[in-house]
Amino acid sequence: MESSEKIGSWEAERMGSVIASEAKQSQNFITSHLPRFLPLATRYLINSKGGNLMKGFTLWFTGLSGSGKSTLSKKVEEILLERGMKVEILDGDVVRTNLSKGLGFSKEDRDTNIKRIGFVCHLLTRNDVVAISAAISPYREIRDYNRKLIGRFVEVFCKCPIPVLAERDIKGLYKKALKGEIQNFTGVSDPYEEPLNPEILIESDKENEEESVLKIIRTLELMGYVPSSGESEYSDEEEEKIKARLKDLGYI
Amino acid sequence: MRKLLVIGLDCATPELVFDRWLDSLPNIKKLTQKGIYGKLRSTIPPITVPAWTAMMTSHDPGMLGFYGFRNRKSYGYDDLYFANANYVKAKTVWNYLSRNRLKSLVMGVPQTYPPKPLNGAMITCFLAPNKEVQYTYPDDLKYELDKAADGNYIIDVEDFRTNEKSELLKSIYLMTERRFKAFRYLYKKDSYDFAMVVEMGIDRIHHAFWRFFDKNHRLYEPGNPYENAIFDYYKMIDQEIGKTLELIDKDTSVLIVSDHGAKTMQGAICINEWLIKNGYLTLKEEPKKQTSLKMNMIDWERTKAWGEGGYYSRLFFNVKDREPQGIIPQENYESFREEIKKKLEAMTDEGGKCINTRALKPEEIYRECKNVPPDLVVYLGNLDWRSAGSVGTGSIYLYENDTGPDDANHAENGIIIWDLPKNKKETYSIYDIAPSILRYFGIEIPGEMIGESII
Fold first, then answer.
1. Window 83-102 of A, Cβ < 8 Å to B
2. What is each CA distance from B169 to B165, B238, B257, B259, in whole angstroms?
């Protein structure tokens, strides 16, 4: 079975008007297809739902400019807020205008910037806030440093090939970078080290925004970081009881 | 910071609240004098599910994809499900408020079970099978409720069909008092931007006691002991509202709404008996006594339509290549629907007088029709009659409801009272509530909401 296709159809059902049995099947599907975006190391967490819920964690987006970090982080923020969680986003572009104002794009400055973001995420996380970082964060070593510092850390790798990003070029940066007009541009004239074991892999050239958001939320639910939106169905006995009650009340 | 308190009174009826009893309801009256009040036009059908969810999402039942409590999951004959919160895919007011970091207390709003997480707290509704299940969010909240209610928190009255009317009356009072007590306890304990409680008691008391007070009801007896049961209960509700209003600060606006109204019930039309008599429905064998219609009793090869009971009726057609043993050719679907619609609308009472039934086509009343809509939505006698699904009744007309005594049917207009807006209209729309609430909090009204803000 081709996973990406199935996720697409699951998505369609979910967003449309899902009915009970289909929802159940989808859930089974997503569990059985978990490895695609959830590495072995984190799968054991799935059964430990209760203890994790409503505690802080850091959702760390990493990926090249234009790969969807900011967009996805905002969508995820909305859903987590809707579910009653405390959430803050540390967006790379925004952070550089305040927390890291004045820092440049040398390796040293980049590391300082990402460490600062990591430090704030750490403070938020230990106070049961969901901290979402949306910065390129190109160096594996610094990301892993933050992972170690924070502990409750979920890495989302927004993977997208440079030609696709250059084609999209939402901020018009790739054109300039490829012409050499911007120096130290990650992925073009500056290194980007891909995560080796991200908890979540987003391939924005292969999936749409809704699918990506759903994948992130679903993984967070399965890891027990986010309360599930709940799909529990009535047992047969409960259903009979409800039926009797509604009949009594004259509704049916 | 602006706050909003919404008090929902399921089935509160404009004719009673505004036309007859307003002077005896001082707290409600005070609110009507501050802002606007009027009728609130309900959904089609005007039933608790889907009406409250339609109010909280500003989506019509077709857009929501459920047309009543029980809905067809597929075009199979016996494939029905209960539309609980799992089937609500549209965003509710508190979803938007949570997204905007505003905190909500949501209590007793129908179709909120099973509870979904939100920024705030939720106590779900009578679709919770019992108190053992998770019916609050957060889960722990349920352990606090009984204490907050000063006794066993009652989700809904049990044993509604009893003939022990005084016991029933007591339990309705108890349920209401405890719900308001619990609500006030929770409301006081924390600070909420938006707080909403829906009390079901008015609906329950209407259905159970209407015959005792409505002089037009055929069973009304002057001087009966329950003559004032409904009136007294409205006064009690007004007092509970008064006690609740003592808690609010000057930045809190108060909105009172109901999902539909009530009116006297003439009786029930046995819709399936009617279909049998008109040659649209054939049973394998004639039932010897009154019984509810089971799908396996139907001779599908000789059946074109069957119907559901309830405060209104839904008709389903047996269409070729759609239903498992369908016989109506698809090309004849529309002409068949017209034929049966005309006959339904010409239906008379036993005296031969036309009862003004309305048969509505879902695609003409809804913006879209998600999932499996009924083929016709039928207001028997324009809701003066309810629909009974039973067969073997020997008559189309039934004067005791097939599922027990019932005195009132639902009416299309509920109520709205809001101490804020200035532009008075006679009738408002149930779809205008959600956009108005968002506007109140300065949140952009999403394009998919079909109503308009009244503020």
1. 83-85
2. 6, 17, 23, 22
Do B213 and B140 belong to one domain? yes
Contact state of B98 with A82 under an 8 Å Cβ cutoff: yes
ipTM: 0.82
Q: Say if A16 is an interface residue toward chain B (CB within 8 Å).
A: yes
pLDDT at A17 over 70: no
Do strands B397-398 and B267-270 pair parallel, antiparallel, or not at all (unpaired)? antiparallel
- Specify the DSSP element, H or E, that contains B271: helix B271-277
Residue A43 pLDDT greater than 70, yes or no: no
Name chain B contacts of A224, Cβ cutoff 8 Å.
Answer: none
E strand map for A109-193: 130-134, 153-159
What are B190-215's pLDDT values in tens digits?
A: 999 999 999 999 999 999 999 999 99
Position A227 confidence tier, pLDDT thresholds 50, 70, 90: confident
Expressed in angstroms, the distance from the first to the final Cα of chain A is 42
Q: How confident is the model at residue A41 (pLDDT cuts 50, 70, 90)?
A: very low
Q: Are residues B261 and B272 in the same domain?
A: no
- Closest by CA to A222, choosing from A32, A86, A79, A73, is A32
**Percent of chain A with pLDDT strictly greater than 90:** 63
Among residues A137, A228, A229, A232, which one is catalytic?
A137
B340/B197 same-domain check: no
Decide if B95 contacts B79 (C-beta within 8 A).
no
CATH number of the domain enclosing B248: 3.40.720.10
Angstroms from B119 CA to nearest CA on chain A: 3
Q: Same domain for B19 and B135?
A: yes
Mean pLDDT by 10 residues, chain B (455 residues): 96 98 98 96 97 98 96 93 94 97 98 94 95 92 93 91 91 97 97 98 95 92 96 98 97 98 94 97 95 95 95 96 97 98 97 97 98 97 95 90 75 97 90 98 98 95
CA–CA separation, B376 vs A221, rounded Å? 41
Other CB atoms within 10 A of residue B387 CB: 26
Q: Are residues B155 and B273 in the same domain?
A: no
A137 is catalytic: yes
What are A42's two structure tokens?
């984190």
Q: Which two tokens stand for residue B308?
A: 């559901």
We find that the CATH architecture of domain A37-248 is 3-Layer(aba) Sandwich (3.40)
Partner A contacted by B132 (CB < 8 A): no
Q: Is B111 within the bounds of a domain? A: yes
Q: Do A252 and B98 touch (CB under 8 A)?
A: no
Residue range of the domain that includes B396:
267-406
Does B319 reside within a domain?
yes
For the ranges A128-137, A230-239, B206-215, the lowest mean pLDDT is seen at A230-239
What is residue A230's predicted lDDT score, i.e. its pLDDT? 60
- In angstroms, the CA A184 to CA B287 distance is 85
Residue B400, domain member (yes or no): yes
Contacts of B95 in chain A (CB under 8 A): 82
Please give, rounded to a whole number of angstroms, the shortest distance from the CA of A86 to a CA of chain B.
9
Domain parsing of chain A, residue ranges: 1-36, 37-248
Q: Across the interface, do A251 and B117 touch by the CB < 8 Å criterion?
A: no
* Residues B197 and B291 both lie in one domain: no
Asked if residue B117 is part of any domain, the answer here is yes
Q: Are residues B328 and B261 in the same domain?
A: no
Q: How far is A185 from chain B (nearest CA, A)?
A: 34
Number of structural domains found in chain B: 2
Q: Clarify whether residues B240 and B289 are in a common domain.
A: no
Nearest to B87 by CA among A29, A236, A232: A232
In this complex, do B311 and A239 lie within 8 Å of one another by their Cβ atoms? no
User: Which residues of chain B does A246 touch, with a Cβ-Cβ cutoff of 8 Å?
Assistant: 69-70, 82
How large is the average pLDDT for residues A221-238? 81
pLDDT value at A18 more than 70: no
